[in-house]
Amino acid sequence: MDIGFVGVGVQGAPMVERILGAGFPTTVWARREASTRPFAGRARIAAGAAELGASCDVVGVCVWDDDDVREVVAGRDGLLDGVRPGTVIAVHSTTSPELCRELGAAALDRGCTVVDAPVSGGAERARLGTLVVMVGGDDESVARCRPVFETFGSTIVSTGPLGSGQTVKLINNALFAAQLSLAVDAFRLAEEAGIGKATLGECLSEGSGSSRALRFHAQRVLVEDGPFAPSPIFRKDVELCAGLPGFAGSALLAAARRPL
Q: In the CATH hierarchy, which top-level class contains the domain 3-160?
């Protein structure tokens, strides 16, 4: 099985390393040529997305946002301009569920399919092969992709129809953001009470109030000792949650937006 991968940045590059390490023949392409240089001699470097699509059975896409995914999949000289029938395109980027369904419909016209397969865990867990992969799509396409997903993911969950993987990922990200906002408050309250950051971090990290968000924030405040500054991707993912059914006006969305 020939594998393609579009987008080899902070998240995508270690995923490709795992795919290569498993022995899959792999072709990569990125809009920034410099991103593909570390793979020279180990993977085929495509000249564009359409060329990559013409030579691969499963193609992973790991770029920034909805517009970028739409461009590399369905834009001019995108994957769908070159893809061969039977190919499965796996969207690993965090996007709106609607986009994946839109691309799925366009792909069917070319005789191929789309699955949404966003990942959770970050670059370090990608390097370790322990990402969580949330996969939405038809059973046959998901099964075809599974051996590839198993190279970088230790938890692979079929979530339902196309778009459902993105829904689960966005709920996950909203919950993390909400927990992070509470962690920020917890450290503020401790400081006002005269309790040291290190003391609070040690207690909460092993206490019943612990969470991954709490441990993340504890490490950040103890090492960086600065105000929380959400990244653009953090903001992007939280705002995508606003489009999910039932999220508008929900306590979860309100809490998730607090650090923004």
A: alpha beta
Residue 181's pLDDT band, with cuts at 50, 70 and 90, is confident
- Both structure tokens of 189: 């309250």
- Three-state DSSP state, 184: helix
SS3 of 131, please? Answer: strand
Can 197 be counted among the known catalytic residues? no
DSSP helix/strand/coil, 116:
strand
- CA–CA separation, 26 and 217 (whole Å): 37
How far is 81 from 180, CA to CA, in rounded Å? 42
**CATH level 2 (architecture), domain 167-257:** Orthogonal Bundle (1.10)
Kindly name the residue from 44, 92, 169, 217 that is annotated as catalytic: 169
Q: How far is CA 238 from CA 22, 146, 234, 260, in A?
A: 34, 28, 6, 9
pLDDT of residue 260: 59
Q: Please report which helix (H) or strand (E) contains residue 153, including its range.
A: strand 153-160
What is the Cα–Cα distance from 118 to 64, expressed in whole angstroms? 12
pTM of the model: 0.94
Of the pLDDT bands very low, low, confident and very high (cuts 50, 70, 90), residue 167 is: very high
Taking the domains of the chain in order of start, what are their residue ranges?
A: 3-160, 167-257
Mean of the per-residue pLDDT values of the chain: 94
